[in-house]
Amino acid sequence: MNIRDRVASLLRPNEVAHAHCDIPCGIYHPHIAQQGAESVERMCVLIGELGTPSDAAGHATLSRYVAEKEKAAELVKHEVRILWGDYFKPPHLEMFPDLHDKAWNIMKLAGTARGSVSIDDAKALRAAVDEFADMFWKSKE
Predict the structure, then answer these.
(1) Per-residue pLDDT tens for 88-99?
(2) Domain assignment present for 53
(3) Max CA pair span of the chain
(4) Does a structural domain hold residue 76?
(5) Whole-model pTM?
(6) In this structure, is residue 57 part of a structural domain?
C-alpha cells in the first residue's frame, strides 16, 4: 500500500451516515405520510373485497395486498418521525401542546394497522395523519 492509499484510508469515514437527504434541504412535507395512510386504508378495503382466497392466484393477491399495507404503514411511521424529529421545534410545542401525543399516537395506530386488516383501524390512522398534516401546515402560517 502506497502513502496515498494509507492517507486515503485514514480520511475515509468508518461509518455511513443516513439522513432525510444528503444536504440540509429544509424541505418537509406531510404528503408522503398521508399517501401511506391512504394506501393502508385502500389495501384493507381490497383485502375485505377479496375475501378468503380459494386458489393460488387469490393467495398471491392477498399476499401482495398485505405486504403493501405493511410497507405503507411503515412508510407512515418513517415520514412522521422525520417531521416530528427534524421539522417541529420547541416553538411549535407552544402552538401544539399535544404534538408529541399526536405523533406517538400515529406510531401506535400505524403499528396496529400494520398487523390488522380492520378498515376502522386504517381510517383511524388516516384521520390521525391528516390531523398531523394540518398541524404541519398551520405551523407554516
Answers:
(1) 999 999 999 999
(2) yes
(3) 67
(4) yes
(5) 0.81
(6) yes
